């Protein structure tokens, strides 16, 4: 598999309209996956709504999706520039019945994975229209059924695991866990923190889409960060990639006897949202703390207690 270089994507952005169209048409006609990935990323970073602020995570997900869809289209006899009106639905159906390859899991691909792959394929066709290669929209009438199981049920927040695992972390790893579980940061936000972002009990966080927010830090988080030296010359607190951080945290969970409970860093962020909601009973304040633009998103981060309104209905 050929890696897609940033320079290749930038080169496509600066082509003339005619040259870009020729490149996209040729790539689609020959099922040139690498070039079609480049066209998709070029569109996402210069022609989409978020443009250059599109998150690296989204770009990586779409790259993976295009690399899945194009070979499938070739195997299935789909002409990328002139797809049939039912080809989008055929791809969705194939994904829904495809066996999962996730470690330790059985069954078919999850609804979230199917949705991610379809979103990437849709982005490819938006990119081809942007490049002037086709007006086809094979996914216009293709529907991805939502997962009936709420995300908070499938991936609930860590609760007692947090304190147990902290005892098996070194100072830097403990700070990372507290930033996610107590300060509510996304792990990518935490990994990008610099010493200059800390101002007393406040932390300046550079979030998704270039948004900046100020997050209050509790005393445990402040104590964890207080004497933590920079990990690099430019003041970064962490010099780990996401995968390096994940590997270290997985080992800490295992050492604490919670190896099977490891569900990624997002469950730590849900820990923060759940605890703050239980203290405030206010989704709006929790959403502002977590950096959500919609309260509907915040609801998916809070594990509500059963019979949460028992006292309120007692005297109905």
TrEMBL record:
<dbReference type="InterPro" id="IPR050090">
    <property type="entry name" value="Tyrosine_recombinase_XerCD"/>
</dbReference>
<dbReference type="InterPro" id="IPR002104">
    <property type="entry name" value="Integrase_catalytic"/>
</dbReference>
<keyword id="KW-0233">DNA recombination</keyword>
<dbReference type="Pfam" id="PF00589">
    <property type="entry name" value="Phage_integrase"/>
</dbReference>
<dbReference type="InterPro" id="IPR010998">
    <property type="entry name" value="Integrase_recombinase_N"/>
</dbReference>
<dbReference type="InterPro" id="IPR044068">
    <property type="entry name" value="CB"/>
</dbReference>
<dbReference type="InterPro" id="IPR011010">
    <property type="entry name" value="DNA_brk_join_enz"/>
</dbReference>
<protein>
    <submittedName>
        <fullName>Integrase</fullName>
    </submittedName>
</protein>
<dbReference type="InterPro" id="IPR004107">
    <property type="entry name" value="Integrase_SAM-like_N"/>
</dbReference>
<feature type="domain" description="Tyr recombinase">
    <location>
        <begin position="152"/>
        <end position="315"/>
    </location>
</feature>
<keyword id="KW-0229">DNA integration</keyword>
<dbReference type="InterPro" id="IPR013762">
    <property type="entry name" value="Integrase-like_cat_sf"/>
</dbReference>
<feature type="domain" description="Core-binding (CB)">
    <location>
        <begin position="31"/>
        <end position="129"/>
    </location>
</feature>
<keyword id="KW-0238">DNA-binding</keyword>
<dbReference type="Pfam" id="PF02899">
    <property type="entry name" value="Phage_int_SAM_1"/>
</dbReference>
